[in-house]
């Protein structure tokens, strides 16, 4: 700050007194091109008295403001109100920092000192619905000992904010970001849970639904009423002229809910609703919307939330004549939100949810944008490999599409709360001689038990009989063959999780899958869920399966024992930290292979997706020393004559180059 004052004087630029006079004269609205000048104009009008300003906040503000100023200028620089809104964002950030609890500030400091904390091989995620898994937030707190037993360091609670009655898209239609759904508890309960999770080494992850709000959100009600300051929070048009123009290039997302991307209001106007008719898209071309949503993020950060899952990131900016997906401004918005958080909640991370073409998924992953990202391609291709008994598409994806910018990480999951969409690129499939359209039809048929010999018991979601398009819903155990009684069902569950645990990043378990929970077909009996087949894979906590988790003669016990063994081994294997992965050709048609190099040794991961034993021959392994350490079984083995993998089994081999003597 002192340096800025000095250069302003020497260059004849704006002084602090000049800035004060402009603010008093009401001439602050237009942004300039110089971040130092605009920060001076903002600083003189900030609400906190100079004597009480926090030095740490000032340091972060000085560091992050040039980035935020540049982004704000690129997004909103042509607007007369841009600098006023930016000044409001800074005021909100300062007020939020002043209220940030000491333990959260301490966490900020620790994570700044260890910026790669989330890349550790000790990271393990779990995800669940609060009500379906534990009843309410108090029930989640009661389960913390079980989470610690499993090894969780990251807990993602599915949407828990206040929502409209009836269908709320599973909680993704938010009525208030500052109120918990009453049947789950209160905002104070959420804060207490975050505190206790943190005390047990578990980071709290929440969904941040920021593309849209529920139609009954306070902002939505005010916008429809035309209240000043809110009339431009959403995209509302008086007739079909503009909606028709947009819909020439915008795709339908939920045609079963409503055609196109707009729904009609009772007064005849039309409002943008990309997803369900009760989810109205926010208008981020209005900087007041940015400020409002930044304020909601800061509120959640001060509750103790560590990671925000950024929902529907591809859709947040609209431009006529485009698909209104993955536009450049969507990335600028994410970067600007990041810059705000670096000022007032520097340890909070973003996780992107972009179920788009693989080339677009990677575009959201960056230290200044989303540090974490779901890995939908790996998830889908794991299931593809299990169905085909052919790992080539997954092997190709690991070789072509796994690498990330430094400091970023995949969140690898076997299945989520949603459906499985076959999100591979057609051009990738074509390189392997596979027709993408036909292959998706096969996979849909296989996983809903419409293909001869299928082991899977999934349910179709959003099936279109005319086009054959569909996606698949089901729990891991039901999709892997346990429900069908297949002999390899348990092994497939463990194999799929072993891939997620060993490819690098944060592995994520849908809680209940660790005890082989099955599909819940009772969703059809509830009018609120009957029309959404994804509820088949959102069962309530399987208490009986948890009670049997110590009995390895049951599927629940066999899966739990095998999975917890994999987790323990991973925690003790530093080579599995970070995300670096090196390809390896196992030269076998059913074996997936890759290397995870460490400082002094490498872990060679092998996974046989076939139904017969597979032998990796000695010549293929000849680049390694003849003795290896098989980590999962904790055995020293000779690989001089090759390695045999049983059907649907995995090996993690700690190996060294052939010329180096083995040391264990």
Verbal overview:
It is built from 23 helices and 25 strands. The chain has 664 residues and is α/β, with parallel strands linked by helices. The strands form seven sheets. The protein has an eight-stranded parallel beta barrel with strand order 1-2-5-11-12-13-14-17. Residues 1-28 have low confidence and may be disordered. The chain is globular, with a radius of gyration of 26 Å. Helix content is 36%, strand content 16%. Helix 3 packs across helix 5.
Describe this protein with a few key phrases.
globular, about 15% strand, about 675 residues, about 35% helix, 25 strands, 8-stranded parallel beta barrel, alpha/beta
| Helix-strand makeup class | alpha/beta
Overall 3D shape: globular
How much of the sequence lies in strands comes to: 15-25%
Average pLDDT for all residues? 92
Number of H- or I-type helical stretches: 23
Low-confidence spans: 1-28
Trace the largest sheet across and list its strands: 1-2-5-11-12-13-14-17
Helix fraction bin? 25-40%
Radius of gyration: 26 Å
What summary fits the major beta sheet? 8 strands, parallel, barrel
What's the total number of strands?
Answer: 25
Compute the separation of the termini in Å: 55 Å
In a nutshell, what does this entry contain?
With 664 residues, this protein is an alpha/beta fold. The strands form seven sheets. An eight-stranded parallel β-barrel has the order 1-2-5-11-12-13-14-17. The model is unreliable at 1-28 (pLDDT under 50).
């Amino acid at each position: 700050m002192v340096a800025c004052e000095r250069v302003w004087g020497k260059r004849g630029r704006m002084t602090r007194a000049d800035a004060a006079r402009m603010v008093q004269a009401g001439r602050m609205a237009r942004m300039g091109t110089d971040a130092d000048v605009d920060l001076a104009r903002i600083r003189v009008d900030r609400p906190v008295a100079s004597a009480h300003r926090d030095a740490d906040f000032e340091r972060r503000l000085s560091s992050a403001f040039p980035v935020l100023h540049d982004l704000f200028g690129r997004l909103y620089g042509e607007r007369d109100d841009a600098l006023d809104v930016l000044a409001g964002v800074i005021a909100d950030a300062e007020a939020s920092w002043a209220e940030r609890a000491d333990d959260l500030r301490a966490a900020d400091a620790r994570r700044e000192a260890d910026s790669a904390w989330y890349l550790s091989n000790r990271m393990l995620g779990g995800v669940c619905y609060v009500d379906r898994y534990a009843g309410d937030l108090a029930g989640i707190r009661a389960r913390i000992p079980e989470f610690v037993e499993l090894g969780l360091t990251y807990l993602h609670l599915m949407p828990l904010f206040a929502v409209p009655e009836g269908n709320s898209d599973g909680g993704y239609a938010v009525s208030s970001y500052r109120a918990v759904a009453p049947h789950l508890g209160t905002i104070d309960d959420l804060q207490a849970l975050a505190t206790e999770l943190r005390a047990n080494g578990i980071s709290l992850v929440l969904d941040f639904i920021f593309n849209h709000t529920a139609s009954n959100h306070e902002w939505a009600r005010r916008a429809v009423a035309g209240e000043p300051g809110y009339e431009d929070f959403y995209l509302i048009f008086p007739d079909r002229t503009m909606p028709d123009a947009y819909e020439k290039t915008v795709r339908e997302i939920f045609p079963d809910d409503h055609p196109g991307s707009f729904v009609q209001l009772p007064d005849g106007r039309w409002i943008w609703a990309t997803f369900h008719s009760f989810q109205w898209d926010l208008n981020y071309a209005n900087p007041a919307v940015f400020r409002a949503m930044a304020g909601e993020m800061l509120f959640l950060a001060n509750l103790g939330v560590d990671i925000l899952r950024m929902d529907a990131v591809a859709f947040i900016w609209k431009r006529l004549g485009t698909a209104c997906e993955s536009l450049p401004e969507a990335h600028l918005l994410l970067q600007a939100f990041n810059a705000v958080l670096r000022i007032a909640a520097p340890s909070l991370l973003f996780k992107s949810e972009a179920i788009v073409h693989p080339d677009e998924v990677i575009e959201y992953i960056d230290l200044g944008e989303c540090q974490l990202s779901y890995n939908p391609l790996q998830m889908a291709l794991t299931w593809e490999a299990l169905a085909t008994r052919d790992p080539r598409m997954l092997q190709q994806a690991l070789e072509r599409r796994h690498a990330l910018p430094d400091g970023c990480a995949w969140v690898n999951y076997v299945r989520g709360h949603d459906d499985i969409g076959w999100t591979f690129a057609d051009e990738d499939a074509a390189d392997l001689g596979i027709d993408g359209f036909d292959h998706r039809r096969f996979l849909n048929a296989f996983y809903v038990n419409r293909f001869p010999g299928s082991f899977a018991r999934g349910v179709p979601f959003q099936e279109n009989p005319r086009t054959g398009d569909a996606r698949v819903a089901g729990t891991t155990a039901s999709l892997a063959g346990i429900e069908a009684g297949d002999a390899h069902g348990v092994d497939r569950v463990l194999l799929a999780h072993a891939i997620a645990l060993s490819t690098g990043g944060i592995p994520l378990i849908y809680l209940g899958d660790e005890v082989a929970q099955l599909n819940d077909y009772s969703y059809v009996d509830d009018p609120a869920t009957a029309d959404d087949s994804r509820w088949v894979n959102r069962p309530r906590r399987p208490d009986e399966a948890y009670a049997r988790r110590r009995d390895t003669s049951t599927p629940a016990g066999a899966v739990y024992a095998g999975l917890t063994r994999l987790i323990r081994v991973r925690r003790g294997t530093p080579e599995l930290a970070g995300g670096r992965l090196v390809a390896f050709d196992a030269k076998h048609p059913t074996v997936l292979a890759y290397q995870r190099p460490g400082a002094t040794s490498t872990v060679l991961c092998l996974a046989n997706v076939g139904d017969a034993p597979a032998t990796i021959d000695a010549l293929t392994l000849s680049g390694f020393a003849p003795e290896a350490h098989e980590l999962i079984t904790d055995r020293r083995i000779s690989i001089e004559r090759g390695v045999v993998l049983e059907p649907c089994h995995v090996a993690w081999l700690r190996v060294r180059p052939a010329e180096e003597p083995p040391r264990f």
